[in-house]
Amino acid sequence: MDATTNTEYDLIIVGAGPAGLTAALYAGRSMLRTLVLEAGMPGGELLKTEIIEDYPGFEHIDGWDLAQRFEAHARKFGAAFRTGVTVTAIRKGRDGIFDVETDDGERVRAPTVIVTSGGTPVRLGVPGEVEYAGKGVSYCAICDGAFFKGHTIAVVGGGDAAVEESDFLTRYADKVYLIHRRGELRASKILQQRLFSNPKIEVIWDSVATEIQGDAQGLVHNLRLQNLKSLEQRDLAVTGVFIFIGFRPNTGIVEAHVDHDDMGYLLTDANMETSLAGLFAAGDVRAQLTRQVTTAAGDGTTAAIAAEKYLSARRSTPPGLEPEIIATGGYAV
Ligand code: NAP
């Protein structure tokens, strides 16, 4: 227990994906008493990625393997872990200490928190989607596109992500079907222009995916569609189905107002600090240009070092000077 803060930990990290595990590693090296809370197993999105080919130093590594290396490295420097617990609320008290509540009824307190809770791609909810995830079904073109060299694949969605990623995927695939539920794309005109001038892409309008089917090897080989106007069914022989129908950051647990963009991603300064002093955000949950393992690790590094500096400054600040925190009851995204 630290006499200056009256807390067992200096830092609580919410989420153990690449951002959280890197933050834990750096916090440990700074001798911060660190607790990592994770709902599932450490690794985050890495656990859903079969092969990683864009993490420097590893030309080709299993996502699962990289996750284990990240975790072991963080543990080596002393971070404590609690897995299988979901954080239900993060609140900052008038004493400047954060109260982090978990679904098992426990509460832990620390003067700094790094939110690395990531985001969740919106799921289609059709049969085969879960079964063939990582076996042809993907939510990340940069991660998985290279596995479809010379293949015929489908992309579902009609927004910027679906249109941009369809174009990107033609670097690898011979043919990309873009499946959209309406007769007009939501994506920006410039992206549409690029899409329509790409001879490898064919748009299938007014249609929804109703089932993803696999072959005897357990890999995707067919996408069943339904035309919403004619109600006709159609089968597309594809080996990959990329789903881009939206992505939601997991930020609903922060119970005070924290600045965020229109889509709910947390806004931070260059030190990964949010608009709430002592609360940092790193990785996919943060508003930024791209969401990669490399950027998540970089964010985690910065956030941990910034948290250490925040704690040092706090120790030399007289108590009672914390800004008043007005809880707004959080916001849903
Ligand atoms: P989005 O703009 O919300 O578009 C989602 C698309 O998926 C829409 O076309 C929607 O159809 C469709 N959709 C939603 N639910 C569906 C379902 N159950 N079945 C079939 N289709 C479904 O999402 P996003 O494309 O991921 O983009 C999110 C945000 O990121 C946007 O603000 C976007 O501008 C931004 N972004 C920008 C860029 C860029 O500028 N380069 C790239 C990526 C993302 P409807 O159109 O019929 O609603």
Account of the protein in words:
By secondary structure, the chain is of the alpha/beta class. The chain is 21% helix and 26% strand. It has helices at 18-29, 63-76, 141-144, 160-169, 189-196, 293-315; strands at residues 11-14, 34-38, 51-52, 61-62, 80-83, 87-92, 98-102, 107-110, 112-115, 119-121, 137-138, 152-156, 175-179, 201-204, 207-214, 220-227, 233-236, 240-243, 247-249, 279-281. Strands 5-2-1-9-20 form a five-stranded parallel β-sheet, covered by helices on one side. Strands 11-18-12-13-14 form a five-stranded parallel β-sheet, with helices on one face. A three-stranded antiparallel β-sheet has the order 6-7-8, with no helix packed on it. The model is unreliable at 323-333 (pLDDT under 50). Residues 124, 156-162, 164, 181-182, 186, 208, 244-247, 263 line the site of NADP nicotinamide-adenine-dinucleotide phosphate (NAP).
